[in-house]
Amino acid sequence: MSISTSTSIRRSSLVAASQIDPNDSTFSVDIDYNQLPQQKLDSIIEICLKQMILYYKGEKTHMYELAESIKKGIDKDLAELENNNKELQAISVDAEGGEKRVDGSTWHVICGSSFGSYVSHQQKNIVLFRIGGISFLIFKHC
Description:
By secondary structure, the chain is α+β, with helices and mostly antiparallel strands. The protein is built from 3 helices and 6 strands; from the N terminus they run H-E-H-H-E-E-E-E-E.
């Protein structure tokens, strides 16, 4: 019985997905915590909205697929953005006071309707926000 119920819910959401409007209140963004520069934040939210539309259309069937596709988009877009803008690059200061770029760091994406977390992250590289009923925790860790 529960299988037919979930199947009908999934079918009805697929039918509704054909009428998705990204300007709908379902896709309103509520930022709970942010340390990202505005350029990075705008890019991440745009990527998440595009992937959410694909999720609701049924092209992505699980949250882990949604998280993986968002991570790939972030890796591509933000690497390009950071390479073009020195202010957005992750910089560390060594013992002598010299600055060097931090390489080898990676973005992590956690999404779902309910989760808890305790993470370490690079300074100014974390955001927690909601789009509709799905929360996103996105951070960069070295």
